[in-house]
Each structure stands twice: as structure tokens, then as C-alpha cells.
Amino acid sequence: MGTPTVVRVWESEFAVYRKIWTSHVLLAFVQPLLYLLGIGVGVGALIDVNADSASALGGISYFAYLAPALLATTAMISAGQASLWQVLDGFFWGNRYRAMAATPLTPSDIASGLALWHATRASIGVTGVAAVLVFFDETRSWGLLVAIPVAVLTGLAFALPISAWSSTRYGGGSFPTIIRFGLLPMFLFGGAFFPIEELPGWLQPVAYVTPLWHGIELCRGAVIDSVSAGNVGVHLAVLTAYATAGWVACRITFARRLAP
Amino acid sequence: MSALITARELRKEFGDFVAVDGIDFDVAPGESFGFLGPNGAGKTSTMRMIGCVSPITSGTMSVFGLDPATDGPAIRARMGVVPQADQLDSELTVVENLVIYGRYFDIPRAECKRRAAELLDFVQLTDRADQRVDPLSGGMKRRLTIARSLMSEPDLLLLDEPTTGLDPQARHILWDRLYRLKQRGVTLVLTTHYMDEAEQLCDRLVVMDDGRIVAEGSPRGLIEQHATREVLELRLHREALGESASATADEDAAALDAIDGIGDRQEVLPDRVLIYAYDGEAALAEVHRRGIEPVGSLVRRSSLEDVFLRLTGRTLID
After folding, report:
1. Residue of B nearest to A19 (CA)
2. CB distance from B141 to chain A under 8 Å?
3. Number of domains in chain B
4. Same domain, B111 and B258
5. Radius of gyration of chain B (CA)
6. Which domain range does residue B145 map to?
7. pTM, whole model, 2 decimals?
8. Same domain? B27 vs B93
């Protein structure tokens, strides 16, 4: 019996996280709060005076439109932070995962332990955002309790495929590109700030096949009563598919890297 | 007692590249066994196969009587590994590094702390226990890595170039600790390209070159078998004195002719000539008698370096 191998890997990630947890938690609070105040309240005041915009947003205020989406976007951004340099470090600079591979732990244990850790870290960040949303009347909802696990799943849909990619690298040269041309465009155009129906027609399918839009739709539907999340089954299936594929990929790439 | 590690026709290929080209060896319990050879000889690849982190391409191997292909976790549970480059968690403190590593083996946290305190004492790092790893010196990090590898109280310790890059004092401290482990009955398997290290630590060693084993024996036995008791090193080159190249080349050739036949055997290296003889001083006297005045001369005991040179025609550190 004893402690499951994935938990032993998790403990190691947690020990390192304990050294930096204040900055992560603070960021999870502060960043969404800034977006909420600057864009949700500030820009929202200009948008909400226009009757046409209200109908485009589904009859809700701009603040109510944006706020729940930040659960999913924060999960994505936080996943990016935890899956690029931090993962490659375990194989390349600090070699923490190599050290683990010399113990009874296998590359698969390490991949699954990392997945468990990504879920934990995302939960911490997303709960921080949810705590901010509780302070505002429009988003103070029991639906937040549903939105938290959905946002965590969204985080995993990014964290696991990106971790698999990172584990094949020999330097962080491609990482800023992933952030600038992958995560940032999704953040801006993935349905958090405006409905994807406003995008040029040829761009809309891009939103459908990326995980973020599905996560945002689910979070918004869970938190705002008057909004429907659309086809919940499809949204969940897409997110689960990304997360599962990423997890399987990690098991393969970690084994290739650690036991060639 | 049966062997702790057995390998037959062991091969490792990476695509077209053959890293280990069919080697046989046995390591007995309690023994201190070394792989000696230059960089690229296949030592690390062999160590990674023993450590069950690199699948063998062909041949057979057993560790603790188990098969690395199927029993990797069980084998690794009884083994400590000191990798070539330190893999410490730089964000964590010295003691946290030990405890977290012990947890990989599922050793209860309280027991991890007890062992960590004991091992820090053993590697003389107790006063650094609560400091971060980053500012430690290279020698201290190495000692911490060794302490970490001992957290699971292994029967077998694998050390891949344990003292490469350390200063002489740090090396001697490390050798002393490893010698104590050996006295406690821990089986040591190490790679090195340092002759003095192999002579200090190994009961028995194999000399590897180009993926193959070219000799096997005790350090002293190998020297007796492949070298003479003493070596006379002569520096004949006169370029250092600023004379013209063509003149010195002629002079060197003449000097080599003149010393021909002295000693049992001679090796001409780019910067010196080695004369293998039972009595080095007598050989030097003969050199002087023939009217040759070398720029420098040195009589020393034969070492594994000479064995390697004899077997491969190359020096160990190019």
C-alpha cells in the first residue's frame, strides 16, 4: 500500500509551490479585479448605454458578460505559466523529473502526478477569481460552485497539452511565441470580451475548435441565470478531449525524455 | 554469493549510433566497481541501463536478480543514484531536498526527517540544513546529492563521475565519505575518467573505450599486467625555448633516435616521451649517458593512465 505514486509527485510540486504561493494567489485575485474594474466597469459604462449592445450580449450588462469569463481565462493564463518554463525546468535546467525517474517513480507516474498538480494549482487560482466575483451583486451566484470545476477543466485543457510540448524542448525559445500568438489571441478573441459572432465569419470556427471559448460559455451560463451555456455536452466533451489528449501525450513524451 | 549485477552482450544503440557495443560484467555484493574511460566511451549509457532509466537494446542484464525491463521500480527502490550533474531542487532548502526525495520512495515524513538529520551529519552539512541550495559550493552540492541518494538506505550506489569539476580538497572529502560507505557494505558502482579516483575507490574496474571493454582487473593488477613498475617522462621539445621549428624538429628526431632501446617500451606523445622501465632513475641515467639533455624529466610510478594509453593508444583526457 502506502502513498500513491501520483501523490508523491504532487507533494514535490507542492513543496516548490509553497515557496511562491503568495505571488500566485495574489495574482489570481488582483489580475481579474483589475480587468473587472478597468474594462468591466469602466468600458462597460460606455457599452451599456447602447441598447443594441445589450441585445448582442444577450440582454445582460457588460460587467455580467465579462466577469464569469475571467474564471476560464485566468485558468488558461495560469496554466500557461505552470506548463512552459516550469515543466521544461524539470527535464532540462533543474532536472527535477530526472531525479524522480531514478527513484521508484516512473515517467507515467510523473505525468499523472503533474496532471494532479495542474488541477490543484488551477483550483487555487480559479477559487481566487470566484472569491472576487462574490463581491459583486451581478455575479454573486451559487453557479460559481459549478463554474469553478469547469474552469479547472479548462485550465487542464491547456496545461496538459502545453506540458507535453514543453517536455520535448531544449530551451524556452518557442515559449513567448506560444503566449503571444496562442494564449493572448484566445484571451482577446475567444468570447471573453465580446461574442464570437462579432468576429469575421471565417474566424468563428477557430473559436469553436479551441478550448477557451467552450470554457467561457460554460462559466457564463453557470454564473449568469439568464444566459444559456448552449450545448453543455459538446462544451464539456471538447474540454475533456483536450485534457485527456494532453495527459496521454505527457505520458508518452515524458517517457521518451526520461528513459530514452 | 551471487552477483548483484550481471550483464551479458549488453548493447545500447541510439539510432545508428552504438553507445555500448556488447559488454559483459558482473558486480559482486559489497564490491566497489568502476567503469574507467574517456568521454564518449559508453560509461554513462551503461550506468543508465543499470539504473533502469534506459532500456537495453539487446543482450541481458539483471540487477538484484531482477529484470530492469519489467521490475524497474522495484530495482530503483533499492538503489541510490548520484548523477553526473546535480539535480537538486534549487528553490528548496538543504533539508527539504532530502525529505522530498525520501518521499519519492514513500518513506514516512517523520522517518525522512530523522534520516535527513543523520545524513547531513554524515556529509558534514548539518549547519547548512535550513539554507537554500543555490549558494552552496560545488563540493557541498555534490555531498548533498550523495546524502540524497542515501535517503532510501540503498544496497547499491551508482555514481556517475562523482568528483568531476571539484577542487582537490572537495574530492578528498568526497572520497573519504564514499570509502566509509564501502566499509559499511554498500556496493559502489562508479564511472570516472580520473585515474587517481579509480585507484582510490575501486576494488575492480573495467576499462572502456568506444563502447567496448578493453581490460578488466584490480587497479594494481591492471598496472602490473599492462605497464612497468615505473615511468620516466622526458620533455625533449625545444620549441619552448624559442628556437626555430625546423631546427627543433630535426633535433627532436635525433634525440628520439638516441634514446631508442631504453626501457621496456616507449610512447611518443605530442609533448613528451614516456619510457616504461622497472627502474626509472636508471633509465634517466642511461639517457644522460647517451648525451641527451631533456628540457624536463620526471620519474613516477605507473598509473592506470599508462594502462589506458597502452590499451588504446590514446590518453584519457584529450
Report:
1. B91
2. no
3. 2
4. no
5. 23
6. 5-217
7. 0.90
8. yes
